[in-house]
Inverse folding.
């Protein structure tokens, strides 16, 4: 079964610059395993050595975070969209000021 895998910019070096690829698998885990076979090194950027999704990586199926579903065992249907998003961290001066931070 084929799904569309959207690749974030930092991982496109593994896909020859492609922003999305077709991938096979009945679950998120199977898709990542199959992608690794074709694009070696990508899985280790997404998964911890113990096998879970890295803390600062988010994985979505049709816009839903897999952490709120069955994680890597989330089932996929043909045509689903699987999106990998690196979390963005950082502070914003305005937001910090609203919450009492950054005030002297």
């Amino acid at each position: 079964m084929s799904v569309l895998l959207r690749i974030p910019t930092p991982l496109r070096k593994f896909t020859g610059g492609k922003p999305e690829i077709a991938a096979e698998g009945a679950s998120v885990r199977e898709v990542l395993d199959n992608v690794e076979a074709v694009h070696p090194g990508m899985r280790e950027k997404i998964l911890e050595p113990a096998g879970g999704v890295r803390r600062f990586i988010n994985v979505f199926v049709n816009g839903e975070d897999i952490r709120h579903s069955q994680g890597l065992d989330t089932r996929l249907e043909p045509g689903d969209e699987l999106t990998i998003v690196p979390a963005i961290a950082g502070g914003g001066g305005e937001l910090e000021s609203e919450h009492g931070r950054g005030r002297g």
User: Anything to note?
Assistant: Residues 93-104 have pLDDT under 50 and may be disordered. The domain at 2-98 is CATH 3.10.20.30 (Ubiquitin-like (UB roll)).
